[in-house]
Amino acid sequence: MHRPGEMRERTLDVTVPEEFGNAMIGVKTGSALQIDLRMESLHDGILVSAEVDGTAAGECGRCLIDIEQAVQVEFQELFAYSSDEAFEYEVHEDTIDLEPVIRDAVVLSLPFQPVCQEDCLGLCPECGVRLLDNPGHEHEAPIDPRWAALGDLAGLEGLTDTPDVTDAASGVDREKR
Question: How many CA atoms within 13 Å lie on the side-chain side of 46?
Fold first, then answer.
């Protein structure tokens, strides 16, 4: 501290104290993060550059299967010596708190709608079958409910005993009208 130009590098293996993420995907509590850290002393404060590596777990936003995704984030943040409104983070009693910075960087790097693969087809909207597992999956075309009663009449077609009689005035079969 207070020695501009001095630098220190550290590698930290950290256990995540509480979940970093959103409802679909996140770095779970108890997961490990590896942090390659570089701290440089400046006139105003300490410049922290870091690379964070870990694994996020969640579910595919289309087909709802469990997925894991590598998390690789880089960030750079200045921790100020004095409490000035221009700086968001500060050095407190010769220490810096990296947790909020790491949390923000990890959460912002996660996808809003994670998918198991780019061409994931999702689930069938009628029965819920995963479409990637069943590529030829189909259902009969739904019958328009306004015409459904006519489907019952199709079975009655052969029950009429009247012969085909043509209406002399119009030339049209009465059965076909």
Answer: 23
Q: Which amino acid is at 103?
A: R
Q: What SS3 state is found at 153? A: helix
Neighbours of 159 (CB within 10 A): 6
- Gap between the Cα atoms of 73 and 98, Å rounded: 14
* Amino acid symbol at 87: F
Helix (H, G, I), strand (E, B) or coil at 56: strand
Cα 53 from Cα 31, distance rounded (Å): 11
Beta bridge partner(s), residue 55: 70
- Read off the DSSP letter of residue 18: S
Q: How many other CB atoms are there within 10 angstroms of residue 57's CB atom?
A: 16
Per-residue pLDDT tens for 27-68?
999 999 999 999 998 888 889 999 999 999 999 999 999 999
pTM for the whole structure: 0.68
Q: Which two tokens stand for residue 41?
A: 């002393």
